[in-house]
Amino acid sequence: MKITWLGHSGFRIEIGDQVLLIDPWLTGNPMFPEERRDEAVAGATHILITHGHGDHTGDALTLTRDLGAPLVGIYDLMTWWAETEDVETVGFNKGGTVHLGDVAVTMVHAIHSSSVGGNHGPIYAGSEAGFMISHADRTIYVTGDTDVMADMKLFNDLHKPEIGILCAGGHFTMDMRRAAYAARTFFDFKTVIPCHYRTFPLLEQSADTLKQGLPGVDVIEPQVLDPITL
């Protein structure tokens, strides 16, 4: 399994027979070197979207057309895109599981908001969500944008993820302290990878607080386009 950060909340995950792009925002992302775009997206089989905000969906429509990789996410947004943008989508909802090749993806709850930009303000884009991504008895929890929530105990009971990709930048999501609390209170992670940080000055710039709050857990501060092999 390889997990590669694309900056902010974007990831490339090579797992089983799939190459999944998560929340790809590449164009205009101050952390992403656009000259390496082709390398970052090569071979992608599906594009997973946690919610509608532009820092998570920025390149989704362009990439699905360029790569022929279907978009996967909340039913409302996927249906709207399929009808208005004529793209291939896989829409499902919280508690549901879809099988992408030999990888299972279950949608789970998140606490945030979800919209896309419109001419007269934000347009509803379905509910925000996270994903449990499983293959061969290994599971990754991608939180999407969220705060701490008691539901996370249920997620661990049901899915037992060993890897957590946790939003942790603060301001728009839980910060490093809250992410550490969520991880040690509700999960038994072996590995934690923070995201949604360092992108802008108002977000947290270091994962030191997360590391200090999770003794015994391998907290990996990702570097853009530097694959993490687990």
Can you walk me through this structure?
The model has no long low-confidence stretch (mean pLDDT 97). The longest helix has 11 residues, at 75-85. The chain has one domain: Ribonuclease Z/Hydroxyacylglutathione hydrolase-like (Metallo-beta-lactamase, Chain A), CATH 3.60.15. The N and C termini lie close together (6 Å). The protein has helices at residues 37-41, 54-57, 60-67, 75-85, 151-159, 176-186, 208-213, and strands at residues 2-5, 11-15, 18-22, 46-48, 71-74, 89-92, 97-100, 103-109, 115-118, 121-124, 129-135, 138-142, 163-167, 191-195, 218-219, 228-229. It is globular. It is α/β, with parallel strands linked by helices and 230 residues long. Helices cover 23% and strands 30% of the residues. The chain has seven helices and 16 strands.
Q: Any key phrases for this structure?
A:
7-stranded mixed beta sheet, alpha/beta, Metallo-beta-lactamase, Chain A, 230 residues
